[in-house]
Amino acid sequence: MHLANIKVAKLVPKKMTQRLYAPGEVKANGYTSYLVSPRVESVILRRHAILGEHVEQGQALVTLFSEAAAEAQANYRITYADWQRAKKVGKAVISDSELLTAKTDYIAAFSRLKAYGLSQQAIDDIGKGNYSALGEYTLVAERGGVVLEDDFQQGQRVDAGDTIMVLSDESELWVEARLAANNQIALKAGDMAQIAVASGKEEQLFNAQIIQQGHTIEVKTRTRVIRLKVSNPDHSLHPGLFVDVYFALAKEEPVMVVPETALLRGADGDWLVYLQQTDAEHDHQEAGTEHDEQITFIPQEVELGGVYRVYLSAQQTWQNWREIKGVAASGSVAITGAFFIASQAAKAGFDAHNH
What we know:
There is one protein chain. It contains 4 helices and 21 strands. The protein is of the alpha+beta class and 355 residues long. The protein folds into 4 domains: 106 residues, conserved putative lor/sdh protein from methanococcus maripaludis s2 fold; 94 residues, Efflux pump adaptor protein, beta barrel domain (Elongation Factor Tu (Ef-tu), domain 3); 52 residues, CATH 2.40.50.100; 68 residues. The radius of gyration is 35 Å and the shape is rod-shaped.
């Protein structure tokens, strides 16, 4: 048995956690992503960040020029000066309505520049006359993150609202898993799942949490989407990466399970396991002794149930197990070497002379 790599295990019902597989794709976290876009028609003059660069909050991203921004900056200079002068002379010289008008015009001009995306420092410099290049303005990062998109060129004219950069915080990402439309599995927000990513000969595993479920069916794929969030502190995951998603479904009652290596199809297409013969003369023998060749196995037809994914810590790998029906508990089954056992049984029944 040792040479044939045949291993035997007792059949004992176990409480298992069923793993439901679904294909998935890593997505940028829509709640922590930020679209960088001009709020007025502009021409791109200079870029200050490139694709894939990690930027900090407040860091300059791109400098643009706009005629509308030039008018707004000039107007702000005037209203700022008027408001400062009105505050200095006070009600003793000007009326309440004039003071209110000066203040309102200043606030409106300030708000217009903020709406165009100018930073507080840039607006202060304009008011103090330290900003000579009217019409130029720089968009800065409203939050830290990675530049995921920068589909533009210097000198390009862009319209208001056009996306020129996308920033995303990759420390927490989304995974969108797709289930068949008729899959009525009971999942809810807060349930945990596992994300598996192929990495050479091994898999990288990440714990994820369900945050949303789609209640509509996607027209093209006819699937419904389950959205999960996954922590990504070392930036191993990136948007666009395809992953395997496994949802955990705990079984209330113990079930009889064997690894898939214990299963073999018979000549009629039915699934078989090989049970160790329980003759009294063999009961005292242990696998690996000099009497191993006397141990025999008998095929037993079984029906297959659910699939379970079990982590083997010794091999640091995952293995699929299957629920089986039609076999009694407490028996011993060959969990590896089923093909060898079947081939030996076939050889024993073969007549070389065809008699």
